[in-house]
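Hi there, hope your week has been kind to you so far. Thanks so much in advance, here it is.
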Amino acid sequence: MEWVYQDAVVETVDWFVRRAIPDSSDWRGESYRIQQVAMIGGSAWRVEVDIPTSAEDAWLSFIIEASDETGETSVTDIECVRGGRGENVGRTYNWDDCSCEWRAVDSSDGEGGSL
């Protein structure tokens, strides 16, 4: 059975993968998790999906909001965490949705940096 917001999930993950995870494998065979969250004036769900990559899987989450008033949906709060690749193996990176780039989450050598 297809979830009513399945198209929003597919569009969002496809968009994010093209934009930020060039080494991803086909994620469409992966299952994803849905959890309803509180929202005033509508309904909202947190969606979580694991995306296979050339390194470790990336973990992507976002919120799908549906307005009671207009019936329109929107996607907010995009977050993603992944392991580094190449010379950055062993580091963890978090997607910064404001700057649209990967940022090191922690660094044993005290240096931050981007992927």
